[in-house]
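#lab-general

N.A. 3:47 PM
ok so I finally got the sequence cleaned up, no stray characters, all 173 residues accounted for. can someone with queue access submit it? mine expired

B.Y. 3:52 PM
send it over

N.A. 3:53 PM
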Amino acid sequence: MSGDGSWRRERRRGVATSALLLLGYFVIPLEQDPNGIRIVLRTAATLLLVLAVAVLVTGQVRRQLAAGAPRGDAEAGSLVRLVVALVAGVVAFALADYVVASNRVGEFVGLETRVDALYFALATLTTVGYGDVHAQGQIARVLVCAQMVFSIGVIATGASIAIKQLTARRGRG
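B.Y. 4:20 PM
back already:
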């Protein structure tokens, strides 16, 4: 069946893309910089990245909602793109958290490594929030507020759509 081959191909592509996003997150150089101009430029670039990911995820969610439940090849491609966009959203926020924590001591409590930042972004975006890592400074709190709004408005909707489509696909197959 060509639909199954397309689904497997799209799924492999999605896993590879998600793995590359995570790899990029861990290897991007983000050492502390005493130059104020470069800090501002890095912060602006990080915020632009977060904004771009938010626009991409929102657009994909809108397309999913408008399309209803696509079938076959369209389902494979759109579902995988949605999952990749959701991974990109988590990575973008983890990157933003790490940049703020690295360049502004005291903004976050308990956030010292990239793993800490990824953990915190996932805990925030999934609304788990254990409390061991938390925002203390004003910049960090504004960033976390943006994560919460993104989580409620985009991640929850996108994850819901992805789960519905996966469940519907398993029910049909």
